[in-house]
Amino acid sequence: MHLELAGLTRRFGTNPPAVDTLSLSLPRGALLALLGPSGCGKTTTLRMIAGLERADAGRVVVGGQDVTPLPPEARNMGVVFQSYALFPHMTAAGNVGFGLETRRLSRADRNARIAEALALVGLTDYAARKPRALSGGQQQRVALARALAIRPELLLLDEPLSALDAQMRDGVREEIRALQQRLGTTAVFVTHDQAEALAMADLVAVMNRGRLEQCGTPEDLFERPATRFVAGFVGRSSRFAATVEAPGVLRAGGLALPAAAAPAGGAVEAYIRPHHVAIGPDGAIPARIATRTYEGATALLALETPLGPLLAEVPATAAWRPGDTTTATLEPGALRVFAA
Amino acid sequence: MIGWLLCLPSFLVIGLGFLWPAAILLRMSLNRTDDIGAMQPDLTIATYARLLDDDMMPGLAGDTILLAAGCAAMAVTLAFPVALAIRAAPPRWRGPLALAAVAPLLVSGTARVIGWIAILGDSGMVNGALTLVGLPPQRLINNWTGVRIGLVESLMPYAVLVLIAGLGRLDARLEEAAATLGAGRLRTFLRVTLPLSAPALAAAFALTVVLGASAFVTPRLMGGGRVFVVATEIYDLALQTVDWPAAAALAVMLLLALGAAFALRGLLPRGRA
Amino acid sequence: MNRAGPRRPGPVVIAGALAGFLLLLAPAVVVATVSFSSGEFLAFPPPGLSLRWYVTLLGNAEILSALATSAILASTVAMLSLLLGLPASYAIARLDFPGRGTIATLLAAPLLLPTLVLGLALLLALQPLKLVATWPGLVLAHCTVAVPFAVRIMTTAIGSVPAELEAAARTLGASPLRAALRVTVPLAAPGVLAAAALTFLVSFDETVISLFLVGPRLTTLPVELFRYAENRTDPMLAALSMMLIVIALTIVLLVERAAGLTRTLSKE
User: Hey, of B16, B108, B149, which one would you mutate to test binding to chain C, going by the most C CBs within 10 A of its CB?
Assistant: First the structure.
């Protein structure tokens, strides 16, 4: 494992910890997304990895070396800040070369590295421009080049896409991902946008209130959420209350529902994704279509059922309309059940 | 921590140049002057008693307070329209206008007095104009009149500074609202602008009173050696009579008076901006 | 925040403002004009224009010596204020350490006292040490009032540089000192320049404290001007005043060129 966080904790004053005993591992060359709502501790975690925040407990281990006691300048990590933090009094080349000044490089080598970094992000022609003469997207690329020029152990990005226009985001997202994979740099980025996390990352760590809810591949998180929070936060789902009647059987809304995996007994909360809810004449759950939201290739139907409101995803060509009555079937293996 | 180390050099300067001399000042005020005018080390309030007992003291203190309060009030009153005009000026002009209002501070106090002598003096502009029109010339310098005029002018830039800062927090939309409700200029001014400016005006007055009470150059030069305020008395005691205990004691009393005025201001309810 | 400001002020306010500006600027304008007077008295308007008083001025050895003293003194005080004040400003603006507020208040304290009292206190303290009318004494006295200004201005300037820039520099391998010197200080440069200019002016114009601390062999230009004004009333006073004003104006203009002083002052 290239990066290991062991029991990382950070407290501010007497408040509950901002980061609470966080542990995870990241293999070399992988991209990890720290995902969660505002205030969940993801940015604090990133700053602790970088050394910009001290850890109250726990360790940060990079390549087998405990870097926790080291100050930021000794950690060789490239950081891309949310506001880019470009030095306004230096040109793009000056910014990119800043990290190289403390390393023993000849002037020629340094210039070569600067040119290389700028070429990586496609800004060779902008080397002599000051940040205020660059667009937001260009500034971000300079920030990226600056972080990469030092050939860092780890690349850390704090909400890299949040300051960009929506239409730019997809493109930049792919560029960053492609760059990261091409260079093979292990990287961690912070985001609150789960679509972004699922699309870009090799591993996603979902955080809530300082604690790690689940760390896994995007597919793991989406198909097999480990906690109620992950089930509700990642992707869309419908939620309903039920009781475990017998192993493999749930009772909700007066109906018996097969469930592949459920706790032993008692009250539970069940989650199911819209694309695992089938609409058709032979279903077990009577349903009335309340609304239909067109989404391009698919449509989202909001159903009123004895279980409560359910969401179902159908092809846009399907004929279901608000007011229709029909039945719904829940794919048993797709039900995520958690103790209430 | 490193913070303390970084502050240490500056702190040393302040310690050597301010804290320690202040202590010496206090200590000196507790010394005594004997009959032949020599200083005697002692620990007594005799010097304070001597000063307070002096027939001249009530008059001196009264004159100083009246001068300070009167000139401060005048300075603030004259500075108010200047600050209002700067506030209402188009943004491009605000900086230069503010600089112009504050520029006199760059001109040494003595130099300004010389300008006033040329304007108010016997051969000055005002008297020249008066004689031209056939009116008798007026004695406008080397007396209290000259001091008052000069002091008001020297206090104005400070008043303008404080007022600009205070008025900056005044929301223009409040005056606009008053206008939409039918208030004319005078009414808007009296019912909206003036009350909301009160805290800034009070702050400007407080600052200028303190500056006016301790003013030295203007009373000394514009007064021609005939106007006596606490500041000139301290100077004379220190360098002419060389009665250091008395000079120190008077200085301490001045500080106490200023401190009391400051504390009093803190007790007054502060208006919301 | 006012965008366009309140509506145009009425005629009363404008008249009052004009009167106010007139009052503020009259002495300086008059002094400038009278300095070129060909007459014997401080009369305005002057009977004629001539450079005679400037010539007299430049032929006066005492005054030229005082000018040299003031210039050297002010330069020294400005440099010292910057050197001593910059680390303190950085600490107050950037670092969080116990007692930070107290130190900041203490460093601003000398400005609370009237210069008259400060001058007296310094006289009483320095006389027994035979430091009155000496260079060290004067430098200390002027620095005591200059350093608070310098610290205040530079603290604001450093505070306006985003702390994140230093963090970025640290992640790129810069030590805290290097990050401060390569990133924060250059960006705070306009404020530092303004502090240099202001401390120079404060020292150059300083009258009252200097009155207590000068002597027959060491005196400053403002003190000479004061002594002259006490004893005479001829246009040479105006010429001498102009000398002070012109030097002050030149410094301000130089800084305005270099860094936009107005911008720095109005940011406060």
Answer: B108
